[in-house]
Amino acid sequence: xxxxxxxxxxxxxxxxxxxxxxxxxxxxxxxxxxxxxxxxxxxxxxxxxxxxxxxxxxxxxxxxxxxxxxxxxxxxxxxxxxxxxxxxxxxxxxxxxxxxxxxxxxxxxxxxxxxxxxxxxxxxxxxxxxxxxxxxxxxxxxxxxxxxxxxxxxxxxxxxxxxxxxxxxxxxxxxxxxxxxxxxxxxxxxxxxxxxxxxx
Length: 200
Description:
- Helix content is 40%, strand content 30%.
- The chain has helices at residues 2-21, 35-43, 80-94, 156-180, 182-187, 191-195; strands at residues 26-27, 50-56, 65-67, 70-73, 104-117, 121-134, 137-151.
- The chain is of the alpha/beta class.
- The radius of gyration is 20 Å and the shape is elongated.
- The protein has a single domain, classed as Rossmann fold (3-Layer(aba) Sandwich).
- The strands form two sheets. Strands 2-5-6-7 form a four-stranded mixed beta sheet.
């Protein structure tokens, strides 16, 4: 009898943990720049960049995500578009490429902001349309999208923190995709290289 009840107790305990974890209101952690992103910015030195306000498209969930019933919000003003903005500033500043007064200015529209913590696999899909303007002239305008996957768990107490951590990793990946784009490198390079970039 005990051999039958033990798996049942384990299952009930897991369900209880999942239910308790679902009651937690969470805030996304402070963004940490990715090492590979810093390396990409240093590998292709260019002009310093100012970062203008980022906004979200009307149909994008910008003010709250849900992970197993637990609400996840962004730390500064509750908007994930602002979280992406602050992440871009941190990345550029870490690589010595940020200057709020620069004539090279980066803006973005958050186009997709999805986070899912499945029982076995979790995934996040992020997309943004990034625009670079130089002295008021648009020299880069492209959508960038990434999907980030990770191993998840049936137990909410394990899956929820993993989803939060991997959301940050997805933001790192999105910005890394931008920094690695040759057109972005040209658009933010010296005036000679930027002239060849156009809006390609």
